[in-house]
Amino acid sequence: MKDITIAHAGCDEAVLKKLQVSANLFLGEGYSLCFKQWEGTGADILVANPEDAFGYRSADVAHRHGVPLMLITDHKDQYQELINDSSIVVDADQPAGLFFRLVEKLLSKGKTAVQNVVDIGTVPSQQADTATNDDVFPELAALVGVESAMKFGLSNHYVYFLPKKGVCAAASKEDFVAVRDAIRSHEALSFSEVSDSESLTSLKHYVSSEGFFFHSFVGMQDLPRFPNGQVGLTSWPNIKSKKFAAELATLSATLVVTTCNVSDVLESHSAKVANALFYAAHISGLLEVKASEKATVTAMPTAVVDGANAKKHHGGIVGALGKWLGM
Amino acid sequence: MSAHENYNKLVFAGPVGAGKSTAIAAISETPPVSTEETLSSGAMGDKTTTTVALDYSFLNLEGSIIHIYGMPGQARLGFMRNIVLEGALGVVLLLNGESEEVYNDASYWLRSIREISPQLNVVIGITKTENNPDLSLNELRGSISQIDPKAPILSVDAREEDDMKQLLKILLALHMAQAV
Ligand SMILES: Nc1nc2c(ncn2[C@@H]2O[C@H](COP(=O)(O)OP(=O)(O)O)[C@@H](O)[C@H]2O)c(=O)[nH]1
Ligand SMILES: [Mg+2]
Q1: Would A43 disulfide with which of A7, A313, B64, B108, CB 3.0-4.6 Å?
Q2: Does A299 map to a domain?
Q3: What is the pLDDT of residues A146-205, one digit of tens each?
Q4: How far is CA A102 from CA A42, A96, B16, in A?
């Protein structure tokens, strides 16, 4: 059994209780959790309430030392200086199940960090770079790999992520637009699990989840580059788009039949579209990510990459159709 | 490549009411020719007039003619399907997203097309999704997983030219990827 130490600082009773429940869940996974007040070092994770003075100071130290950090606050925007790749922000009133998953995510971030330090030189850099379930921006990490419905957004606008159905839903189009804009500008979003009793009948607007996320990401000026590795699509992404139809079709046709190297794809296609597609498919559970060493490295078939070339091979009817469609 | 496989044909297939005639009209410059017949039985719900035979239209792309067919939805006209599908560049399979049968329709129609022509490229368009908040896109994926798990599925509006063109772009991309 592996021992994990979770330190806490400035948290109230309710949060501590939820963490205790999470700890019990970890027992089932072959870990034993030790809970204690933050003492400056020796913790795998720090859970801190930055609104508390001790909580803030502890979080600051942990942040500077690269200790994975879970910040418990409703005011994410006030603590941007504490937020980086190995931190997660969560509201105090979230259910224990979500705490459990977030602790899990943080632990795997910690592991990667440790591995990178210890095994430097022996771990192929590609592998260290390979996307894991946590490699989506920290803002949306809480959505990756979830199986039950999640509600996310701003105080007055929510989008519901329904992973079983593969859709995002909202009560109005304005909700979609507001949350999309918040994602684009890295605004603080709140996440909560949708309870079984919550009625979803007021949600009249639906779109595929990959569609919602793709359109959010493709309009982002500073979308981080998707981590390197071998990727493929497990299903065709259902993304309606006039502007990017041709690129999406070409990319998808390739990635459903073969895995490709992220860098190769980004170089040979519209990087903006491909990068947004990777993230959207990843959150929606459509992306297969393989560590480079295991995967067969497949370059993009040249005729697919080079649209002009492809047209040459398919003159006549197919060429004329392609021209008509603007491909 | 047989003499028939000249890829000068696009086929719209799917059950009655899925939007085939609408889709063909949306991408055609001139109104399509439809051989219609009024179904007297109430078997098709409240839809009184429905196409039981072929829709036909064509695209004239700088002298290259692409024939467009709407494949009849009725089982009794099934024999025509083989003729229509032969030599097609691909099939746009439209399914009515409003119908509870959409999952069964997806597997039934995809299997029927695959039985006639295993290599033919198929793109699935789900119409009228705005009328069905219960529609599960993942259940749709599940319903074709035994037949062709990676077949493209796109939520579309058959009345929108851009949506129909996006389906055709997917067919073309599949064709190019296959030809590599
Ligand atoms: N809301 C909506 N209505 C549609 C759509 N596609 C077709 N329709 C309507 O559905 C009805 C049946 O369409 P039709 O093209 O005749 O279906 P067909 O039997 O497959 O040829 C018509 O009234 C269309 O206007 C769609 O995507 N959305
Ligand atoms: Mg018709």
Answers
A1: A7
A2: no
A3: 899 999 999 899 999 999 999 999 999 999 999 999 999 888 889 999 988 888 888 999
A4: 20, 10, 48
Are A94 and A174 part of one and the same domain? no
Residue A128 has pLDDT above 50, yes or no: no
| A246 → closest Cβ in B6, B163, B169 | B169
State whether ipTM is beyond 0.90: no
Nearest atom in ligand 1 to the alpha carbon of residue B157 is 27
Which residue stretches of chain B are H helix? 20-27, 79-85, 102-116, 137-143, 161-179
Angstrom distances, CA of residue A227 to CA of A19, A45, A129, A135, B11? 31, 24, 6, 7, 40
Regarding whether A267 and A203 lie in a shared domain, the answer is yes
Q: Is B19 in the pocket of ligand 1 (CB under 6 A)?
A: yes
**A177 and A109 inside one domain:** no
Domains for chain B: give ranges and CATH numbers: 9-179 (3.40.50.300)
Q: pLDDT, tens digit, for every residue of A280-289?
A: 999 999 999 8
A30 in B contact zone (CB under 8 Å): no
**Residue A174 falls within a domain, yes or no?**
yes
A88 and A142 co-located in one domain: no
Question: Quick check: CB of B9 below 6 Å from ligand 1?
Answer: no
Could you tell me if the CB of B50 is within 6 A of ligand 1? yes
Question: Do residue A13 and residue A109 come from a single domain?
Answer: yes
Distance from CA of A9 to the nearest CA of B (A): 42
Sign of the four-CA dihedral B146, B149, B155, B156? negative
Spatial separation of the C-alpha atoms in residues A225 and A182, rounded to whole Å = 19
Q: Are A175 and A265 within one domain?
A: yes
Domains in chain A, number: 2
Q: How confident is the model at residue B78 (pLDDT cuts 50, 70, 90)?
A: low
Tell me the average pLDDT across B132-159: 96
A154 shares a domain with A110: no
Which of the residue ranges A129-143, A284-298, B102-116 would you say has the lowest mean pLDDT? A129-143
Residue A247: band (very low, low, confident or very high) from pLDDT cuts 50, 70, 90: very high
Q: What is the pLDDT of residue A231?
A: 95
DSSP type of residue A223? P
Q: Tell me which residues have their CB within 5 A of the ion that is ligand 2.
A: B 20-21, 51
Residue A83 tokens, joined: 């937020």
Check if B154 contacts A (Cβ < 8 Å): yes
Q: Can you give the residue range of the structural domain that contains A165?
A: 138-290
- Nearest 5°: phi and psi at B63? 95, -20
Same-domain pairing of A92 and A153: no
- Asked if A327's CB is within 8 angstroms of B137's CB, the reply is no
Helix, strand, coil shares of chain A, percent, nearest 5, are 45, 20, 40
